[in-house]
Structure to design on (234 residues):
């Protein structure tokens, strides 16, 4: 780790103690998890205090960890990657559950300190509440406004205190949140123009579920059964 990151990690530990928990990062950026109840206090300190000076919020990202780390199906004859994934996959619909796994949904904040030329990431899990909810950081970093709307639109995570939390990428009549792992591939509704009503109307999706696995049939002489396992001298 570079010296600047080492120094920042030491300041983080000294200032926040058990409020933050450092986690491993594959992108070599300092990453900390914290309880959602501590988010506003920690974020305010990171922006205002001279030891940190994170005046810029680069991005806010939602994450759905449903089935994280587990393969979609078990096989001894093929890998779990590539075109064959999901052939027998059944969707897991949890939107109607009373509560979620406490670590299913997370919000990740990417911070930049221009004055100190260093970056930091914070990760907050939403807990068991359905719908998932965390506090808005718009009053700390005004740029979070549209970022939080995007996370709400795509993941269904609510931000308490947001001044105008509504969809930003999908249509007003869109049903569900398309970046959730249990969202059906074909969606829930479709739109079309109704000439009789003179407007766009919504109706249940009519696309039939299908497996999107490329199937290539090769029948030229290179794949003849008679040539199987035949070796040539050369």
């Amino acid at each position: 780790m570079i010296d600047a990151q080492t120094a920042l990690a030491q300041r983080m530990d000294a200032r926040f103690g058990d409020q933050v928990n450092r986690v491993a990062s594959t992108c070599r950026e300092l990453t900390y998890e914290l309880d959602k109840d501590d988010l506003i206090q920690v974020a305010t300190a990171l922006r205002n205090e001279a030891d940190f000076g994170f005046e810029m919020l680069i991005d806010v990202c939602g994450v759905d960890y449903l089935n994280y780390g587990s393969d979609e199906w078990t096989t001894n004859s093929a890998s779990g990657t590539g075109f064959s994934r999901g052939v027998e996959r059944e969707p897991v619909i949890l939107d109607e559950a009373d509560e979620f796994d406490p670590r299913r949904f997370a919000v990740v904040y990417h911070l930049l300190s221009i004055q100190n030329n260093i970056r930091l990431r914070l990760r907050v899990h939403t807990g068991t509440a359905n719908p998932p909810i965390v506090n808005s950081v718009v009053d700390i970093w005004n740029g979070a406004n549209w970022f939080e709307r995007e996370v709400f639109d795509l993941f269904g995570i609510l931000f308490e205190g947001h001044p105008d939390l509504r969809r930003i990428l999908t249509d007003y009549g869109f049903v569900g949140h398309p970046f959730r792992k249990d969202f059906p591939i074909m969606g829930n509704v479709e739109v079309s123009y109704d000439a009789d009503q003179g407007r766009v109307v919504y109706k249940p999706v009519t696309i039939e579920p299908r497996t999107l696995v490329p199937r290539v049939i090769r029948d030229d002489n290179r794949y003849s059964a008679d040539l199987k396992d035949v070796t040539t001298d050369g």
